[in-house]
Amino acid sequence: MLFNSVEFLIFFPVVTFLFFVLPHRFRWSLLLAASCFFYMFFKPVYILILAFTIVIDYYAGILLENEQDKVKKKKYLIASLIANIGVLAVFKYYNFLNGNITGIATLMGFKNHIPALSIILPIGLSFHTFQAMSYTIEVYRGNQKAERHFGIYSLYVMFYPQLVAGPIERPQNILHQFYVKQQFNYNNAVHGLNLIAYGLFKKVVVADRLSEYVNGFYGNIGNTNTITSILAFCFFSIQIYCDFSGYSDIAIGTARFMGFDLMQNFNRPYLATTINEFWSRWHISLSTWFRDYLYIPLGGSRAGKAKWYRNIFIIFMVSGLWHGASWTYIVWGALHGFYNIFGLVTKDIRAKWAKMMGFYHLPSVNKFINQLVIFALVTFAWIFFRAPNFTIARAAINKFLEFNFTYNMVQICAEKGPLNLALDFVAILLLCLSYYLPKNLKLRNNLLFLCVTTFIIIILGKNGLTEFIYFQF
Amino acid sequence: MDLPNSSISNFKRFLTGILLPLLLIVGIVGYAFNYFFEQKIIFTNPLCGAFKINRIITETHTNEIPIFGSSRAEGSFIPDSLGTDYFDYGLSGSKLDVALFFLKEECKKKKQQRNIIMALDFDDLIPEAGDIGYYIPNAAYAPVRQLMGKGYKPYYALPFLRYYGTFDTYFKLYLNNKLEVTKVSNKGASLEKNEFSPAYFNMLVEIRNGNPTKLKIDTALASDLLKLVAAHAERNFIFVVTPYHSSFMNSIAATYPLVDSYLKQLTANKNVTLLDYSRMPLADNMYLNTTHINWKGAIAFNHALKDTLNSLLR
C-alpha cells in the first residue's frame, strides 16, 4: 500500500483508532495483522519471504542468547546472516551475477547455460533484511536480549510504517516500545500529523512534480540541451531527497501518532559542507548500519591510513550494491567512496586554500561555497543512480558537456511546457521556505500549518500514485 | 475498550482543536475555491476538454458545425478560417468511444445545421478515454461516467478534492488560451507553434520507418458508428482525414486495407462524405511529428479544406 494513496487514507485512521480502543494485550496482534495487510497489498506471495527470515532470525536470536560457547555462537550468527543474505542474493542479485557471468563467458568464447530467474524483486527487501540482521548481530554482541515473543519479534521486522523503506531500526530502539502501553496523546497525534503532512508535501508536491521533468529528460536526451541537463540533474537531486525523506517523514509521523518513536533518517543533507557530513545527514539509519556492522568491524579509522581509506571505499561500494543490482549503483557508491577519501586527503590543502582566498574571514561565504560544491558532487553521482544504464548516463553527461545554451523553450521545458517548469520552481521554493520551520516540526500553530499544507498538497500535488523510489531497494 | 480518562481528554482536545477545525476549514475554503475554479478557469476556457464536454451536454448552438475527434481534430482545424459557425470539440488522447459519445450527444439536438465534421484518425478506431480531467467536472452525467470506466473514483463526487492532481492541467489550458505562448487557440482548437529541428524530425521519421504501425478496429465501436450514421439520415456526416507524414502512411501500408474496407462501409451511407487529406503534400517543417501537423501545416491544410467545404456545403 502506498502512503500517497486513498487506501492509506482509510487504512491509517482505521488501524490507529482500533489500536487505541483495543486492550493493550491485543494491540501487537492488530499491528501485526495490519502490517501483513499493508505488505500484501503490493504482492501477497512475498509475505512468505518475510516469514522465512522472521522464523530464521527469531530462532537464531534465542540460540545465540542460550549458547555460551563463543565458537558455536559465531556459527549461529553466520548461519543466520547467510540465510538473510541468501534471500537477498536470490531475489536481488542472482540475475545480476548471472548476467555478469554471461558477459565474461561470452568474452572468453563460452556460453553460460545458467538460466535467468524471472522474478520481481520483493518490495523493500533490503530494508527488512537489514533490520532483521541488525537484531541477530545485536543479540550476538549482547546488546539486546533475544525476543521470546514470536509475535512481537515479527512486528519488529514488519511494523508497517517502516516496513518497506525504513528507517532501518535497531532492536534496542524499537522492540521495547511494543511492550509499552501507549495512550492517545494530543502532542504525539499533532506532531505525527505534521510529519505526515510534510512528508506528503515533499512526495506529491515536490518529488512527483520534479520527476516529470527528470523523466522527460532521461526519456528523450536527444531533444535536450545543456540547460535541460543541468536542470534535470539538479531536479533529480531534489526529487530523490524529497521522495525518500518524504517517505521517512510519513513513516515517523504515522508511528509517532500511535506513540512510537522511530529514528531520524534525514537531517537536511544538502546543507552539508563536507561529503562526510552529507552521509551523516542522508539515510542516517543505513549509514549508521554500515558504520556499526561493517566499517567498525573492518577496523574503521584505527588501522592506519591505507586500511582506513580501503574501509571507506568498501563501505560505499557495498552501499551502492545495497541500493541495486547494477553496475551503475556500484559506480555511484564508488564515486562517494572516492569523494570521501579525496576529502580526507585534501583536508589540509583545502583549509590552506580557503585561508589564502580570505574565506576564513567570511565563514558564511565559505560555508555556502562548500555547500554548493557538495551539492554539485552529489548531483553528479546521482546521474549514475538515476540512469538505467551506462549508455544513458554517458549520453546525459555528454549533453551537459556540449555546452549548448541555446534558448529553445521546448527543450528547456523538457517538452513539458513552461507552466510545468514554473511549477517545478514553485515547488522548490516552497521546499526552501519550509526550511524556516523548526526542524522537528513541533510548531506553535499546528492548525495553520496543517491547513496550509493540505491546500498546497491538494492544489499542487501530483496524483500519479507513483511509488517511492526506495521501494525498489 | 482500554481508554483511560487522560487518553479520552487528549482525544477530545485533538478532535476539537485540530481535526474538526481542519476538516471545516478545508471544506469551506475548498468549496469556495472549487466554485471559483470551475466558473473562472474550467467552464470559460474553450481549450479545456471539460468545457467541451460540458458544452456538448448542456448547450445547443443551432447553427454550429461541430468538429469531433482526437488530437488530430484539436490540432489541425482552424475554425475561424473555415467560417463563423465552426467549433472544435477535439480531445487530445481520446479515441473512437469518445468521438461516438460526442456524435450521440450532437444527434440528440434539434438544430438547423445538418453538418457534422468528424476528424478520422486511422489509428484511433479503438476505445481510449484520454485525460481523466476531461470528465471529472461532468462525472455526474451518466454517459460521461460510463466513459470514465474504471478511471472513476468515488472522491470525484467531492467538490475541490475531486481536482486533486489535476488543478495544474486545467490552469495550463487556461494560460494556453490566454497567453498563446506555445500554441495558437481558436474556438476549441489548439495549434502547436513548435517546429522541431530537421535533425530531430528526421530522427522521428527514422523511428517511424523502423516501426510499422498495426492499425486496429474495435468492431463493436465501429458497428455503433455505422448504426448511428444510418439512424440519423437527417444529418450530414463529413469525415475528414487530416494530413499525415508520408513515413506514417508507409508504416501503415500492411494493415491499411482493414481501415479502407471499413471506410467503404461508412461511405456507402448517402449522408456520409469522406474528405481524405492523408497524403496532402506538406513540407517537413509543417509537421509537429509524423502524425500531427503544426500551426504552419494547419494554415495550409485549412486553406485547402475551406474551398472543399464551401463547395460541399453550398
Describe the structure.
The complex is a heterodimer of chains A (473) and B (314). Helix content of chain A is 69%, strand content 0%. With 473 residues, chain A is an all-alpha fold. With 314 residues, chain B is an alpha/beta fold. Chain B contains twelve helices and seven strands. Classes of the chains: A mainly alpha (473), B alpha/beta (314). At the A-B interface, helix 1, helix 8, helix 18 and helix 19 of A face helix 1 and helix 7 of B.
Explain briefly what this protein structure is:
Chain A has 473 residues and is an all-alpha fold.
What attributes does this structure have?
heterodimer; A: 473 residues; mainly alpha; globular; B: 314 residues; alpha/beta; 12 helices
Largest interface: A-B, 37 and 39 residues
Radius of gyration of chain B: 23 Å
Low-confidence stretches of chain B: none
Report the total helices of chain B.
12
Outline the low-pLDDT stretches of chain A. none
Strand order of the largest sheet of chain B: 2-1-3-6-7
What structural category arises from helix and sheet content of chain B? alpha/beta
Describe the biggest sheet of chain B?
Answer: 5 strands, parallel
